[in-house]
Amino acid sequence: MNNIMGYMTFVATAIGLIAVLVNDRFSQWNKGKHRDEKNSNVDFKQRLDNYIKRKKIFDRCIYYPLVIAAILSLIAAYKDKQELDGVINKLNNVSSAFSGLNNKIQAYDNQIQKNQTDILKIANQLQQVELKLTQVQQTATKPNKTYSKEDNNNSSIGNLKPKKRNKRGCNK
């Protein structure tokens, strides 16, 4: 379709240029004819009538090709406008698609930031658990004292004596 529109534009331009050149040549020829009639002693009114008649005939003959050229040019311009509108619509569609992708990317970025925040919270909790675990392990490695009532018949806790544990953890 582009080639046809290009040819139509070329033909319209060619017709317009040819019409301008022909009009220039005709004006020179018509003036020369008018001078020849003046030299041959034709009446002024008759010379003027002949000049105007030739000009009207020429103008009518050149009018139709110029109208055709203008119509071809308008058709080509209309088709070009339709094509450009199609391109603009495609660009708008692509722009909308990019906007949608940009929104998705921002949503993914927000999700990544949320996940990173969650990871940091979990890492902090893990550090706290590890710290408590090391504290528990440290207290577990210290010798543990247990108290027995058998050593002292007194029931008060203050009178209880610590009893050492054996390796298995059983009291003796």
Oligomer: single chain
Helix/strand class: mainly alpha
Largest β-sheet summary: 2 strands, antiparallel
Question: For the residues shown, what is the average pLDDT?
Answer: 81
Number of E-state strands: 2
Strand content: under 5%
Low-pLDDT segments: none
Question: How do the strands line up in the largest sheet?
Answer: 1-2
Global shape:
rod-shaped
Number of helical segments with 4 or more residues: 2
The ordered H/E elements are HHEE
Q: State the helical fraction.
A: over 70%
Intertermini distance: 106 Å
Query: What is the rounded Rg?
Result: 54 Å
Would you kindly provide a written description of the structure presented here, covering whatever features stand out?
By secondary structure, the chain is mostly helical. It has a domain at 2-110. 79% of the residues lie in helices and 5% in strands. It has a two-stranded antiparallel ribbon. The longest helix is centred in the middle third of the chain and has 98 residues, at 44-141.
